Design the sequence.
């Protein structure tokens, strides 16, 4: 009798648990929470079985002998930016106005990135625009920047495009920045948005390197700290000068500035030589040239990667490819727990360098490694570049598959649409 009663109780409890589980599935908020947890455990298992930090890209230094498709422009020769004695003698020195020792800008409406997939970029751009009185929020920027919700990365040029086409404000992006320039912009009333690399505990439970944005809204020379609006951590999040500079190296010292159209002349005056995009790229190139001899480990990897990036911008693709070869050689020497294995999620200039010198197999291999290392490879740029390489080697069906994948992860992605036309012609 007792056994029968126990069986009835057990059956009743099992039925209640099953019913509770079914009810959860009909409550959207609880269903999303359960789905998130299941996805998190799936990613952790995948990372444990296939640790992405163990994979190392080894360039193939024997490119294809006969390219089927190429658009390689003539490489440019990069002149040194070192001034001659005549330049120094004949050029009057500008009057330098000392910067305030501390400045804090107010009026930025804080936005966090939590509760949504990879919403760092939409949140930070919304904060940058709010400084100028823009009344939207992260959902407004996100709906444009991330038509596919789980897209892992939004580029700075995409953020600038949103500002320039969807608002009454303007935006510019420049590379090769420095701490003094950040201070000048803040002191002049232009809080810059910077892209940097930080070590954060990710969904796999590991502390690993990933890209991150922040709006820099203040500085204080007495403490050597910047004040940042950080969508991951908190508003008014302090970051030491040297720490920000090191983190910023991971993204070629890139920054975005938003402003009102009528302020352009004033902003360009503050920017000085950085007002010209190519001049900024040359500054970044020279900076990387110096840092490859001044750094080691992960910082040396980024110095070589930055050198290659800026040579791509300046259309010296052969030199860029050699720089990326050096960068990946250094990468293999970095301790596994320090390797920035997500780099090619965010920075795709290596693909351009290898592609434009005919090293299509390197494009394919690097993109494949990146895609395979991401449990959820929502990386439209990687699929796009691999599609170009497949097309260049006559593998049209693979190219078509990849370009369609890119368009699934980024509907309306203009480069993929253009490539789709080429494949179909």
Sequence:
């Amino acid at each position: 009798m007792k056994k029968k009663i126990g069986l009835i109780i057990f059956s009743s409890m099992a039925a209640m648990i099953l019913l509770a589980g079914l009810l959860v599935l009909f409550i959207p908020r609880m269903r999303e929470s359960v789905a998130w947890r299941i996805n998190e455990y799936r990613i952790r298992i995948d990372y444990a079985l296939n640790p992405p930090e163990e994979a190392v890209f080894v360039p193939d230094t024997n490119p294809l002998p006969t390219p089927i498709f190429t658009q390689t422009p003539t490489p440019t020769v990069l002149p040194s930016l070192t001034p001659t004695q005549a330049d120094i003698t004949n050029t009057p020195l500008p009057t330098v106005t000392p910067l305030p020792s501390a400045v804090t800008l107010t009026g930025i409406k804080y936005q966090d990135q939590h509760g949504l997939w990879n919403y760092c970029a939409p949140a930070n751009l919304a904060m940058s625009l709010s400084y100028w009185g823009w009344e939207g929020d992260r959902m407004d920027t996100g709906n444009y920047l991330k038509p596919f919700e789980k897209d892992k990365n939004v580029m700075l040029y995409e953020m600038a495009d949103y500002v320039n086409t969807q608002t009454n404000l303007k935006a510019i992006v420049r590379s090769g920045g420095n701490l003094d320039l950040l201070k000048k912009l803040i002191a002049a009333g232009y809080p810059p948005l910077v892209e940097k690399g930080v070590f954060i505990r990710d969904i796999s439970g590991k502390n690993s390197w990933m890209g991150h944005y922040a709006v820099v809204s203040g500085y204080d020379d007495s403490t050597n700290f910047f004040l940042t609006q950080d969508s991951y951590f908190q508003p008014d999040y302090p970051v030491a000068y040297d720490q920000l500079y090191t983190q910023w190296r991971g993204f070629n010292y890139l920054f975005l500035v938003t402003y009102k159209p009528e302020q352009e002349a004033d902003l360009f005056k503050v920017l000085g030589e950085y007002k010209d995009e190519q001049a900024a790229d040359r500054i970044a190139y020279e900076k990387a040239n110096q840092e490859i001899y001044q750094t080691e480990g992960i910082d040396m990897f980024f110095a070589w990667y930055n050198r290659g990036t800026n040579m791509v911008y300046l259309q010296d693709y052969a030199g860029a490819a050699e720089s990326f070869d050096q960068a990946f050689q250094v990468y293999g020497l970095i301790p596994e727990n320090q390797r920035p294995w997500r780099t090619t999620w965010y920075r795709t200039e290596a693909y351009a360098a290898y592609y434009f010198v005919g090293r299509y197999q390197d494009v394919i291999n690097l993109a494949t490694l990146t895609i395979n290392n991401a449990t959820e490879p929502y990386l439209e740029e990687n699929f796009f570049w691999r599609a170009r390489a497949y097309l260049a080697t006559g593998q049209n069906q693979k190219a078509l598959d990849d370009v369609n994948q890119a368009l699934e992860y980024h509907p309306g992605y203009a480069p993929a649409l253009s490539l789709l036309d080429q494949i179909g012609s």
In short: The chain has 18 helices and seven strands. Confidence is low (pLDDT under 50) at residues 63-91.
